[in-house]
Amino acid sequence: MEELIFVDRKNTNSVKWDGQTGMFGTEGLHAMWVADMDIKSPACVRKALADYVEFGAIGYYKIPDIYYEAFLNWEKSHHGFEGKKEWMRFSPGVVAAFNWLVQMMSEPGDAVIVNTPVYYPFLHAVTNNGRKLVTSELINENGIYRIDFEDFENQIVNHQVKVFILCSPHNPVGRVWSKDELKRILEICRRHGVFVISDEIHQDLTFYGHEHTPSFLATDDWSNIVTLTAASKTFNLAGGQHAIVLIPDEALRKKWDSFTLKIRMMNGNAFGYIATEAAYSGGEEWYQNVIKQIQENDTYLRETLKKALPDLVISPLEGTYLVWIDLRAYMDAKKVKPFIMNKCKLAVDFGDWFGGKKFEGFIRMNLATSKKNVKIGVERMIEALK
């Protein structure tokens, strides 16, 4: 099995390690934020990119059939979904894609709903585009989250919601939604004419026997759903700025094509295509090893923190490589941010970023790194809290 190679990313123009000022007002914190890895991408990816650079003619790029085949084979073998080449479209990232879809499928002032706490660019996609942000808070039962279906439907009706941005698996709470949960929430959207943007970028990152269900497999009606995914989280390729948009419905595809034609963003750069194809074609062994590493990191973090700090609430990691921790048993929620930054010297994602003050006291920590880096973060928290 391909060995993972951990890298020191300090002083490499890494946002995670060298770009902390914008979010934290300082530099030099031990980085456990931003959803990318401190791990070299698979050898097959590095070789494919090196071969292309060595060839040296970096001109206009024709997308080969093997790119489509690699992704579709991965979807079928790993998630049981049989897609088609003609359904696939490009975006320079999942975040760009759901911003475009909010613009395409709603008008300024229209309501867009999300389940909080949620990946904060969801919130920005609504407010930055002049839409009305509507939230339906997930029910938190001692760190285990579930959807409040009654509230979700009431919010849709009361605010005449036009678009729902679904996070599946859910970032930051780590839930892998069951097929029944997805079926129920999609039925509510269908019943009220709500368009669904299903962000499934973390689809491959599931643990402890949990399996991701594509939204397309939870409903028979695909006329109001578009799914977004990418190789970037799975294989650490975020710098390639390449995401895949799956649109089975012909009318929605025409709408997408019309929009992207206007902004002249129909295709991406060669490096993104080459890296993505190589990863899906040859990255299986590396992928299995990274799943094992993240799960080992999670087990270590969970067992060590709970032994030292038994009242800490750590949400189960069903999916994503981001662990959600509630520190409120040990301090006032408002003190968490200065405590983590000034006492622990850690850069993490703070709870209020994911939906406002009601999530103060929570932090999100990235486990896609070496056990050594996780150990530093865990030991600093224990020492400072004790």
Task: Explain what the structure shows.
With 386 residues, the chain is α/β, with parallel strands linked by helices. The chain has helices at residues 15-18, 21-24, 43-55, 65-79, 94-105, 120-127, 149-159, 179-191, 232-235, 250-262, 270-282, 284-308, 336-343, 371-385, and strands at 30-31, 88-91, 111-116, 132-137, 139-141, 144-146, 161-167, 195-199, 225-229, 243-246, 313-314, 322-326, 346-347, 349-350, 362-366. The protein is built from 14 helices and 15 strands. The strands form 4 sheets. The chain has a 7-stranded mixed beta sheet with strand order 2-10-9-8-7-3-4, sandwiched between helices. Helix 3 packs antiparallel against helix 11 (270-282), helix 4 packs across helix 11 and helix 7 packs parallel to helix 8.
Radius of gyration: 21 Å
SSE order, one letter for each helix or strand = HHEHHEHEHEEEHEHEEHEHHHEEHEEEH
The main sheet comes to: 7 strands, mixed
Record field, number of beta strands: 15
| Helix content class | 40-55%
Number of helices: 14
Low-confidence stretches: none
Distance between the termini: 40 Å
The average pLDDT score comes to: 97
Structure class: alpha/beta
Widest β-sheet, arrangement of strands: 2-10-9-8-7-3-4
Taken from the alpha-carbon principal axes, the silhouette is globular
Residue share in β-strands: 15-25%
